[in-house]
Amino acid sequence: MKRIPVKDIREFTLEFAIPSYIQQYSSKPDVLIATVIGHEGEGSLLSNLKKEGLATGLSAGSVYPTNEYGNFSINIKLTSKGLDQYREVILYVFNYINLLRKKGVPEYIFNETRHMARLDFTYGDKGEGMNRASRLASNMNSYQPELAETVHYIYEKFDPELIQSALDYLRPENVLSMLTAMGLETDQIEPYYGTPFSYKVEKGEFYISLLNPENIKGFSLPAPNPFIPYEAELLEERPVNLINKPGVELWYSQDVTFKRPKVSLKFSVQLPKEKVNARYMTQLRFYTECLNEELNEIAYPAHEAGLNYDVSSGLEGIELIVSGYTGSTKRLLGEIGKKLKSVS
């Protein structure tokens, strides 16, 4: 299917019809599959698409309009090259799904997701007001009232067989693919919104090649996440005696008002003011953009582990902010530090 948008965007979406996994909330096979397909680290689907210059972004996930059925979608932000070679993108997608079907979702992915869900339930922001009430009410339509608040954080059983059965729905014969971009050739007009589109059932040579795609080198499943904070302890709620010697007694106490094992670190690299001009600021902005792009494969697993960072530039120089669970911020800060002078 092809469609012409109002905005100037380039994207490719694959939607698969799947049964409802709402009641399989203790194992969440669709969430685990989306976690692997949507990963952005080394060896991932997006990483390889970026290396080929075909895409700039990717997301995956499932939605359930009813308790009986749903759909699993993969959305890819295309480059100009990716738009021209969108069939190559499809080959990459089904090749990666085929790899996942052969190897299965690793159990450590489930364990990491469960651990982070428990931390997020304990220390995360639950929301407030209308949005929170709306979310809980929505959950009560599908789950028992006592599960409304906790259901999305529950990971009790790793079920490889259920994951494999879910993966069986992610096949070429069960997909609706949608290419969205300006300038596509279309032959129909949607009657309500006036959107130009075209629809075609693909059963030719290209479709047959998708049924058993050739292996593409460079793909791998996500490695164990090194940033998972397995130790998340709250600070003591009383002063700590650091030094107690004759003539010297030192006590230390931090603010523990929020009772969360989190930290926010901010660093400012200030540069000489006499160097600031339009050319210099442009180069500085380009440097930070390149740095952020190079950090993406590191930043993604860090974000999955509850960490965030921001590298920005301004008139005073470069500002770096790292925040998240105390137990793993130092590791992320070290990885960012390695790239500051080696960005290419």
Characterize the structure shown.
The chain is of the alpha+beta class and about 350 residues long. It is built from 11 helices and 12 strands. Strand 6 and strand 7 form a beta hairpin. The longest helix has 18 residues, at about 85-105.
List the helices and strands and how they pair.
Elements: E1 2-3, E2 11-19, H1 29-37, H2 45-51, E3 55-63, E4 69-78, H3 80-84, H4 86-103, H5 107-123, H6 129-140, H7 160-167, E5 175-180, E6 188-189, E7 196-198, H8 205-211, E8 240-245, E9 248-252, E10 262-270, H9 278-294, H10 296-304, E11 308-314, E12 317-325, H11 326-340
Parallel strand pairs: 1-5
Antiparallel strand pairs: 1-7, 2-4, 2-5, 3-4, 6-7, 8-9, 10-12, 11-12
CATH evolutionary superfamily of the largest domain: Metalloenzyme, LuxS/M16 peptidase-like
User: Strand fraction band?
Assistant: 15-25%
Helix residue percentage: 25-40%
Estimate the global geometry from the Cα principal axes. Answer: globular
Give the spatial strand order of the biggest sheet.
3-4-2-5-1-7-6
